[in-house]
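Quick look at the format.
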Amino acid sequence: MTAGPILCERLRIPPFDPAVLKPTQWATAQQKAKLGNAILRFIALGMPAEKFTPTLYSRLSNMFGFIAHYNRTGFAQTWFDNAATRRDFLDQVAREKAELARLQAKHGGTATASNSSVPTVQLGLL
């Protein structure tokens, strides 16, 4: 797996601010900001294998509709092995976010509201 052409430090500016994130039973606002910043840093660096930490694998494999695969190496080979798979990774993130917005528009409110008629959607950063 080699780092690809997705090198964009501007993805990291400004960093996620915990003050604007909503804490949930799964993560505090500070934890969400730290994760969001780690994901953006990883993408900005071109998604290199040496930066795909066990912590990133643990969270990303359960976000944005991804599955865990057999292990971190399998996930990395599937999503970060070359420019095409990295593009597919970003497309998957975008599709999942669009689906959440569609559900919110269809059912009203937010998909993370505890009294929502829609099952709770946990994407990690909302």
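Next, a different chain entirely:
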Amino acid sequence: MQPEVWQPPIALSTQEEQIVTRIRRAKLFVFLRKHQHVLFDEAFQRELANLYDDSLRHGRKSRSVRVDGYKRHVLQDLDTNLIRAVGSDSSKCP
């Protein structure tokens, strides 16, 4: 299930205008507020939502090699209950 796409307001509200005029040091806050509609566009929001897919699994083969995928098949030894093999598809699969 994908969350709704957030449509941030482009224009500053009167209360935000007052806050922006008072800010002297936190210029990053002002920049982020004025450009949030560009930074958080629909494509970026979809990419963020895909990071938190419940069925997506993350793993590591080594310290530098990450593996992302969907767990599909598990081969388990019934006598010892050991998992012998796991097959996973690419996370890019539909």
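The beta strands are 56-60, 66-76, 83-90.

See the schema section for token definitions.
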